[in-house]
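Handout for the seminar on molecular recognition.
Each group receives one record of this type.
Step one: identify the two inputs.
Step two: read the structure output and locate the region that could contact adenosine monophosphate.
Step three: write two sentences on what you found, then compare them with the reference statements printed after the record.
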Amino acid sequence: MKVLIVGSGAREHALAWRLRQSPGLTALWVASGNGGTAQIATNLNVSPDDVEAIPKYAKGLGIDLVVVGPEQPLAAGLVDRLDAVGIPAFGPTQAAARIESSKSFALELMREAGVPCPEFNSFLDETLALSFLEKHSELTVIKADGLAAGKGVFMCRTFEEAASAVRACMSQRVFGGAGDTVVIEEFLEGPEVSVFAFSDGERLSPLVAACDYKRLGDGDEGPNTGGMGSFAPPDFWNEELAGEITRTIMEPVIHALARRGTPYRGVLYAGLMLTDQGPKVLEFNCRFGDPESQVILPLLVGDPLDIMAACIEGKLADTPVEWSKRNYAGVVMVSAGYPEKYETGFEITGLDADERNTNIFQAATRIESGRVVTSGGRVLTVVGSGDSLAEARDAAYHRVQSIGFQGASYRGDIADVEARTRLWLPDPAAPTG
Ligand code: AMP
Ligand code: GLY
């Protein structure tokens, strides 16, 4: 099988690494890839967002399967376009991808399917949104409806904070059209978990779960980022919780999309909050997570090409999906100054060290005169594995020590379960009521 992966991050490097282990793979391309994918596949110089050009390249290369990593091309209808020219693609259609590309769509769908989610109201009109907020001044979460690269979510403690978030979205249009509709949500508390399942439109695979870290600094201090680390499985994950999430969240949503005539095929990612009243959905994503992929793809037992083909053909019932019991921790190394201003072009050393139980998945890197150099903010993910989370964490941080580039920085508390548990325990200083 000739396969084309769309995307250029560490998620896509991890996908390429995992697909390389498929006996059925004969050739692998990545559009546009990075310095890591260049070593195990052929990079194509075409933007992952160019939904016009990708089908043409895929036709020209005689591609048998396209695997789409990021949400933007899915939301822009890449899978529909590939389908129109007869090329099988792993990922949902544009209609099914609305589960991520419109928060109000996802919430309405959950309401229809009886899936636990925060109380919410959506607004197309700023004045109406502001007058609603005047009557509901408690802690609220304001969200731009559309894709905003993880930046469109605001936790607001006061009316003023909430009002300025609404204005930023609606009249100032800082997210363009993505903020023309705004969702006002109830604030939920509890530990967060990212849950993933393959779907063939009707059926789901067993779930796999991971935790990710969005803030820049240890103890969840500092600005939001594209993700600073992850681990899998979470310490609290068990069969009972997985069963509850399958029954109350994943299956009802897959069935609701099928009933609407827009079946969901691909990997469904639910961002959940484990509240006192049980798991509730914060968001759905229409793809693998980043940096979660870097710790869940190594857990996948079996042939990913068979599983992806089964999702596309509606044959998941005949294709067992299994997740291994090993533990993985992923530490993201970033450029000095990220997520604000940073410099690039620094050589990365130590990538070739062959340490057991570790993997490096590159993101913002490129090859320049035979050397791997930095090309952006989130440079790479160092993954360690072990029979326990502590072993996985030690392996990852040991390997981090051997990697060098000017200004490299990373969080020191990834997969530290005790430190993470402290983060969601109620803050005794916080206002109540
Ligand atoms: P989202 O992009 O919707 O997942 O939101 C990004 C982050 O904001 C989540 O990972 C949560 O940490 C937080 N968040 C989103 N919605 C809520 C909510 N209703 N209550 C509390 N935190 C939330
Ligand atoms: N880990 C967050 C995301 O992939 O959206």
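Reference statements: The chain has a mean pLDDT of 95. The chain has four domains: 2-90, 125-180, 190-323, 327-421.
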